[in-house]
Design a protein that fits this description.
By secondary structure, the protein is an all-alpha fold. It has four helices and no strands.
């Protein structure tokens, strides 16, 4: 079942806000260590703030591409 356009927008707006917080607003420095482990995954527990920012940038690019794909192809807006 596909999401509505409003749901699609809200889900991605929250995701983009999180990645931008990590990239631009000092979020990476705040979650270094256990915070990164809890928010990003077991693999990020030993990362520095710079590595967390790189991860956030990569996933932000992927999220924006997925958002645009869902706008162009509504069938791609599947809900889990």
């Amino acid at each position: 079942m596909a999401m509505t356009l409003t749901e699609w927008f809200l889900v991605h707006a929250l995701g983009v806000a999180f990645w931008l917080w990590l990239l631009l607003l000092g979020g990476a420095e705040r979650i270094v260590g256990w915070g990164a482990w809890g928010l990003l995954g077991w693999f990020a527990g030993h990362w520095t703030a710079e590595q967390i920012r790189l991860y956030a940038l990569i996933l932000l690019v992927i999220e924006v591409a997925w958002f645009v794909t869902g706008l162009v192809f509504p069938a791609a807006r599947f809900a889990a």
